[in-house]
Amino acid sequence: MKYQIQHVTRYEYAEPVSLCHSLAHLKPLQTRTQRCLACSVRVDPWPAVSREHEDFFGNRVSYFSIQQAHKVLEVTAVSEVEIDAQLPLEPDRTPPWENVAQRLYDKGDGLMTDARIFSLPSAQIPLEPTATAYAAVSFTRDRPLLEATLEFMSRIFNEFEYDPTSTTVATPVAEVMAQRRGVCQDFAHIAIAGLRGLGLPARYVSGYLETLPPPGQQKLQGSDASHAWFSVLLPDFGWVDFDPTNDQMPAEQHITTAIGRDFQDVTPVRGIFYGGGDHRLSVAVDVNRVPEAPDEPA
């Protein structure tokens, strides 16, 4: 499956900004099931300095600095991505979750020891006893890792309410646990907090999800949005993704841009600016399938 993604971030300031420095996580990752065929990031006004680097987690990070006065900043990323179908896993045949936690400390197992950082608390996901206790209901003794995680994901989907007005990017995990409502970022943070509390490696995934209009209706431009989910490390296989907002294991409709310990590691656009006063932020995302070329006649 091929997709073209356009992500437009626009800041409008009440007063001129004299200088800004920004980082953007907008270029899709290369993974075993995802290939980024093309990607460009355009900044208006034109930056005085711009460059790209790979961060600690392997994400593609764009840095830019605008050194002229401006009242509007617009960052547009256009990407083309190809997603391969994944082979189905048998959750009940995966190892017991306790064994996975123990393997993090096997010094001869490079994949697992490298993942240990994802079992530790982070800035936005501290160890939260209520989240750990919530996860423990699904992670009973010797239960297969993916079987337990699937049930845990479904419980979040069924027992938490999706409410875009209830939280901000800074809402603590404890508060989301208490009010049982939030958005995709919150649900990913809840899941990761619970898993890390049990000693399991879990990471935050930022990206996009293709949304399809009702039958017979046209898709509205800008109706898609950034999305977030989480992944768990399965020994001898790799990272496996789970989307608690939609109660599904991501497949061909999920596109990954960045991974990290929590939202702070993968913020789509963030930075500092001087001046500006009050500002307004708007984001528009379009995820469109690229039609497959018809087979040529023999």
From TrEMBL:
Its transmembrane ranges are none
Concerning Pfam families, the annotation shows: Bact_transglu_N, Transglut_core
Q: What are the Transglutaminase-like domain coordinates in residue numbering?
A: 176-246
What is the official name of this protein in its record?
Transglutaminase family protein
**What species is given as this protein's source?**
Thiorhodococcus mannitoliphagus
